[in-house]
Write a structure and sequence with these properties.
The structure is a homodimer. The first copy, chain A, is α/β, with parallel strands linked by helices. Chain A folds into three domains: about 260 residues, Metallo-beta-lactamase, Chain A; about 150 residues, Rossmann fold, CATH 3.40.50.10710; about 100 residues, Ubiquitin-like (UB roll). In chain A, about 30% of the residues lie in helices and about 25% in strands. In chain A, strand 16, helix 10 and strand 17 form a beta-alpha-beta unit. The first copy, chain A, is globular, with a radius of gyration of 28 Å.
Chain lengths: ~550, ~550
């Protein structure tokens, strides 16, 4: 691993080709293509958020290069639910062909359409419900209710001439969800009895033993914390977590408090959720945040974004006293959220800032104010046992999650040769209940960076990492074209290294003499002279400072 | 908060002045000064490891600027234990005056001396033991055994004419430690009965409810994992955690395996620990790692560094197949360590890499293979109750930890006005059992960056962050001195932004015309012309790319 790249054969008629192009070996940018008889169905089209070694990048998209020449063959995109890692890349897909139909539940499509509106795209959309079936060319789709940390999530069964695939999307098996809408194991049982040839299953929590606790176990904790809070309460959570917000509304209401929503995405998503009936707002509870200051401190709850320590979100700005609401002694802040790996430092920075201002901070680390949205190992075992799929493809997760999930499948009796550890770009062909790996595409990262999509390369990111760690030194020298003699400079500028110009006094004569020596040896080529400067400065800075800043030499002929 | 800076008054004779200069509001660079009658005692002198917003920095030192003019008054440095955050800055202190005596336990001094040797400093040192008292000018020091995640840790009672201070250093209260050396609550009781006027107490785990589990609870887990491991076992932990390594040696020995130490600091520290008798090496268990390949795979345990995902440490290199030992199927890797906040992404990257290679990875998340080295809330309550200090200064921790610790003190009946929430540089005067905050020094971060100490500024780090996120564009234009007319260029170079030169074709004419306009308006000053270039390019890149790279203009007169 990683798998060697090899081209898949031409797809035979009547064979279903399944290619995950995002979401394997990573948590994010979930996207899988299904092709049979020349027609393509896409399931999910999400984004991945960059890690610290991808500095400056805004978003990472699935590598859709293989789709570019096949856009006319795409019959539609099924979106399993409304999280960014499943819908976030839809605008970038629709930029390539804007009339690809998008298919999903009411809430999923509403959130996707709101996102597309920001990109000025009005999509063709088809709203579906659990239990519904749709024929899309050679694909018969059946939608199955699943429970997740956003309402209205769907699994999709894809029935074709070649066999049946069930893709769970993200899911867990909360047996007492707030909306009563459980993962529909009855349908799993029926589909399993009819025969599921390939099972694409969420791996995010496959390495977590046991069972995810009930979402409703959080309600009483919120209620207690709010009941005891002497002044304002500020709750931060994910802006799409309708049921978490529901419990905050209910707890506030029970304690005679009103709720103001804070943060653009929180306001937008909850307005959508309330309009569509997913969020039940107790009469008179919501109040515009501008009017919230008129309410006594012990009668208000702010529901805000920023639970991951995002620097521009409401909660971070509050912690930095860069927001109209300035937390202080007596205020209570609840982070009703997970700590996504990589965000811990930022989250603790916010917690620390709030604590320093005098607020009491309640979070996952000291109270049961969060449960995961993904099925843990115990739940996945139920799934495998009720479904009894012929083949399993763990999806959605880092490799350790995929491997843990494959082991669970094997524990329930599925043979090792029927569990597939794939990567993004692994091509699997299904026919007559058999799955074969027939290719490995060479897929990369597509970076969204400001207005640019796919222009920033890994080389640029490497440069950014060097610049960010070490800074740079630029050296400009003007030489006489005929003789190579230095006529002006070296002019030296540095940033992120040492901005005191005097430190370079020692290296200037070295540059001049190195250039004189090169000129004496007949070197005139600009590139070669620049290399001389680079080596001279590089050696000096490494010896004197034990550092390796980027060195940017420029030799100009006058 | 942060406290307003104000100068302390001159120190009156017979008053003890306590100034924490590192370790408050942060986990690291612990250092406190004590002054009475013109003489200064220092307790601890550690380093802080940089966070991601301090890119390229190697270490952060306490700001010792106030000490620079007082070096001759320093009588000694007490080092409570041998961790980097308590001893790491000693070389930088001794660079200022190399004959400041260092005082500590046998292991603490051995580790400090090994570090000083790398800096070619041979210190004056005084080895002390628990129960021992030493008179150092106006300071009478009594050393008290405490238990921590490194052997031979000491608390120190500092008795002066002005009153008695007890500083715990880092500690916990394991009641059945491997070496039988518990935190000496009998001495705490005696000191408390005699009267402790100020208690400096470790806050690291003050917000963790309950009690830290026993270190020895890990042994049986290690034993089980090793017993079941079919091939090689690789254990990673902190290179100073003698008792963790002891348990690995014992478990390996019990399972008929030999142990090879990997990683420079692991080998160095364990050699010291074994030589001094802190590590008991079962006869014939240790083997040089070069000979370890001669041993069957199921008879070897590698004990390595890299448990925090450090990219250059052994474990990361193994995960990247950049080490002679290449993990594979059947191998078991145990991370017997914590996940220090900020390191999670790096740690999971290593776990994922190892898993992908086929190894089974056992870590804190899936087995009880780590316990903390710090007293949790329950233990701290015991401390306060047995000591009954007059005043409390929580130290060693982020603000949330200090605040949690102060609350625990108050829970045991210590008045709020006797618990001090201080920052680095807060000056506290003690006399007759009373503590007053009398000043707030303006202390900063001192960055070690390659060979430089204190030269890199926060402005440099800000530049690095911008460079690292956005890259830079440099523009060189040669103008005619008399007319301001562009005679050569603009030559544009960019790194970390877009390295395709063609993207700049659109902005070159804009630069030329902006400079022509400025020249027409009589602008000749180089700085002003550079500002014209900066604004022109900045506006273009922001409009076209929605990015803000660093723009480095240079206008040269020819």
């Amino acid at each position: 691993m990683p798998n060697a790249v090899f081209d898949p054969p031409e797809l035979a008629k009547g064979t279903l080709r399944v290619t995950p192009i995002g979401g394997l070996g990573e948590v994010g940018r979930n996207m899988t293509t299904f092709e049979i008889d020349g027609k393509i169905l896409i399931v999910d089209c999400g984004v991945l958020f960059p890690e610290e070694y991808q500095p400056g990048v805004d978003l990472i998209l699935p590598d859709m290069s293989e789709l570019k020449d096949r856009l006319d063959d795409v019959l539609g995109v099924v979106l399993t639910h409304g999280h960014e890692d499943h819908i976030g890349a839809v605008p970038y897909l629709l930029r390539m062909r804007s009339d690809i139909p998008i298919i999903g539940s009411g809430l999923t499509l509403a959130l996707t359409e709101a996102k597309l509106k920001e990109h000025r795209i009005k999509p063709y959309s088809l709203t579906v419900k659990e239990g519904q079936t749709e024929q899309l060319g050679p694909f018969e789709l059946e939608f199955v209710a699943v429970n997740h940390s956003i309402p209205d999530a769907l699994a999709v069964a894809i029935k074709t001439e070649a066999g049946t695939v069930l893709a769970t999307g993200d899911f867990k098996m909360d047996q007492l969800p707030l909306d009563g809408r459980i993962t529909d194991l009855r349908s799993f049982a029926r589909l399993g009895a009819d025969g599921v040839d390939l099972f694409l299953v969420d791996s995010t929590n496959a390495d977590v033993p046991g069972f995810t606790p009930l979402e409703r176990s959080i309600g009483p904790v919120l209620d207690q914390v709010i009941a005891r809070a002497p002044r304002r309460v500020i709750v931060a959570s994910f802006s799409s977590h309708v049921h978490r917000v529901q419990q905050v509304l209910d707890a506030a209401h029970a304690n005679g408090r009103r709720v103001a929503l804070l943060g653009r995405s929180m306001v937008r998503n909850m307005t959508i959720a309330a309009d569509l009936g997913y969020l039940r707002v107790p009469e008179g509870v919501l109040i515009d945040y501008k009017k919230a200051t008129d309410i006594p401190d012990d009668k208000i709850v702010y529901m805000s974004t920023g639970s991951q320590g995002e620097p521009m979100a409401v909660l971070s700005r509050m912690a930095n006293l860069d927001h109209a609401i300035e937390p202080g002694p007596g205020d209570t802040v609840i982070l009703a959220s997970s700590q996504i790996p990589g965000n811990e430092s930022a989250i603790y920075r916010v917690i620390d800032g709030l604590t320093k201002l005098g607020a009491t901070v309640v979070h996952k680390g000291n109270a049961k104010v969060h449960v995961s949205g993904h099925a843990a190992a115990g739940e996945l075992l139920y799934c495998y046992n009720i479904l009894k799929p012929k083949n399993v493809l763990p999806v959605h997760g880092e490799y350790r999650h995929l491997i843990a999930n494959a082991k669970l499948a094997q524990d329930t009796g599925i043979a090792e040769e029927n569990t597939f550890l794939a990567e993004n770009g692994t091509v699997l062909d299904l026919k007559d209940g058999h799955v074969d790996v027939v290719g490995q595409l060479d897929l990369g990262f597509v970076y969204v960076d400001g207005a640019s999509v796919g222009e920033i390369t890994d080389a640029d990111l490497k440069d950014r990492r060097i610049l960010g760690e070490e800074g740079f030194i630029s050296i400009i020298v003007v030489v006489e074209a005929q003789t190579g003699r230095v006529v002006s400079g070296p002019e030296i500028h540095a940033r992120g290294f040492a901005e005191d110009d005097a430190v370079f006094d020692k290296v200037r004569p070295k540059i001049v003499s190195a250039l004189a020596e090169a000129a004496g040896n007949g070197v005139r080529d600009q590139h070669a002279l620049q290399q001389v400067v680079r080596r001279t400065v590089g050696r000096w800075v490494n010896t004197s400072y034990r550092r390796r800043p980027m060195i940017v030499p420029l030799v100009i002929e006058a």
